[in-house]
Structure formats: structure tokens, C-alpha cells
Amino acid sequence: MIEKRILKVIKDNLQTKVEYDLSPEDSIEELGIDSISYIDLIVGIENEFGIEIDDDKLFFPKGEKLSYLVRLVTETMNM
Question: Whole-prediction pTM value?
Fold first, then answer.
């Protein structure tokens, strides 16, 4: 359930719209997410889940997949 919500927030905040359901295995960069749009995504995720992700974890995850964001949110919620 959390994974689906995270992927929906990501899809809703993408600058380039995609016509398919996102998967945790999708590449962050291949979806056109750069360092600036990444911050927008983080803000959207924080607002959706009522969390605040630690600043030290906000680096742009070059080469990562969306599963990185799912893991980041899950870890933050479990703290």
C-alpha cells in the first residue's frame, strides 16, 4: 500500500507525464528526474505522508531506481 502511494505521488509530480504505471524498478534518471525535480518529489512525498526526511538523506541518488525512494520513505516512517 505504501509503495503504491509513493509511486502515485512520484507519477503525479513528474514533469514528463508517463502513460504507464510506475514500478520500483524504474530508473529515477530515465524518468527525467533531475536534482531540482527530485527536491519537488521529496516535498510531495513528505506532504503526502506527513513526514520529514532527514537532510543528510536528501542527496540526489544518481543511478538509483524508484525503490530507493520507497525504501527511504519506509525507513523514515519507521523511525
Answer: 0.85
Three-state SS letters, 7-53: HHHHHHHCCCCCCCCCCCCCECHHHCCCHHHHHHHHHHHHHHHCCCC
Q: What is the pLDDT of residues 39-57, one digit of tens each?
A: 989 999 999 999 999 988 8
The C-alpha atoms of residue 79 and residue 26 are separated, in whole angstroms, by 26
Strand, helix or coil for residue 63: coil
Single-letter amino acid, residue 2: I
Residue that the C-alpha cell 510531495 belongs to:
44
Q: Report the candidate in 39, 44, 59 with the shortest Cα–Cα distance to residue 10.
A: 44
Rounded distance between C-alpha atoms, residue 20 and residue 27, angstroms: 14
